[in-house]
Amino acid sequence: MAHDDTHADTAAPDLLLGRIRDIPDFPRPGILFKDITPLLNDRTALAATVAGLAAPFRDAGVDHVVGLEARGFIFGAPVALELGAGFVPARKAGKLPASVIDQPYDLEYGTATVEIHADAITEGSRVLIVDDVLATGGTGRAAVDLVRKAGGTVVGFSVLMELTALHGREKLSDVEPHALLSV
Ligand code: AMP
Question: Which of 139, 161, 163 best tests ligand 1's pocket when mutated (most atoms within 8 Å of CB)?
Answer without folding.
Answer: 139
